[in-house]
């Protein structure tokens, strides 16, 4: 858990508080969990944020939203409106879990999304 939080902190520092985008690719071992920071601009502080799963923007599926359930067996989401970053956590990763979008819902226009790719690798087993 400490490694995940440390990793998240480093990613937040790299992306910067004023950045409008998220990281684009992360390599993770199968079965592990990953937390992705999704920064957004101050004008969207009160908007709904969500994680969408799928390669194509127009056909991705909602995974989790900030205005509904904040945690499931597979996903969790939290929104730090002061830092203007919402964080999504994806648990028990498999090779099927690769393409996602961090999205801010825009009421009077098209939602604003940033794609990221998870490269899920098989881990070695040690007995």
Automatic annotation (TrEMBL):
All residue ranges annotated as the Immunoglobulin domain in the record: 23-121
Signal peptide: 1-19
SUPFAM superfamilies reported for this sequence: Immunoglobulin (SSF48726)
UniProt keyword Signal present: yes
Gene3D superfamilies: Immunoglobulins
InterPro entries tied to this protein: CD300_family_receptors, Ig-like_dom_sf, Ig-like_fold, Ig_sub, Ig_V-set
The organism's place on the tree of life at top rank: Eukaryota
Main location: membrane
Cell compartments where the protein resides: Membrane
Keywords: Membrane, Signal, Transmembrane
Keyword Aminoacyl-tRNA synthetase included in the entry's annotation: no
Name assigned to this protein: Immunoglobulin domain-containing protein
């Amino acid at each position: 858990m400490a490694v995940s939080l440390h990793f998240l902190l480093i990613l937040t520092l790299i992306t910067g508080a004023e950045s409008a985008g998220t990281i684009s690719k992360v390599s993770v071992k199968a079965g592990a969990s990953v937390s992705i920071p999704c920064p957004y601009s101050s004008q969207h502080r009160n908007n709904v944020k969500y994680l969408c799963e799928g390669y194509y923007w127009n056909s991705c599926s909602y995974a989790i939203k900030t205005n509904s359930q904040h945690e499931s067996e597979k996903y969790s989401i939290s929104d730090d409106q002061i830092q203007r970053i919402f964080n999504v956590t994806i648990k028990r990763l498999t090779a099927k879990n690769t393409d996602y979008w961090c999205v801010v819902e825009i009421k009077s226009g098209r939602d604003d999304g940033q794609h990221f790719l998870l490269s899920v690798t098989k881990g070695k087993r040690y007995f």
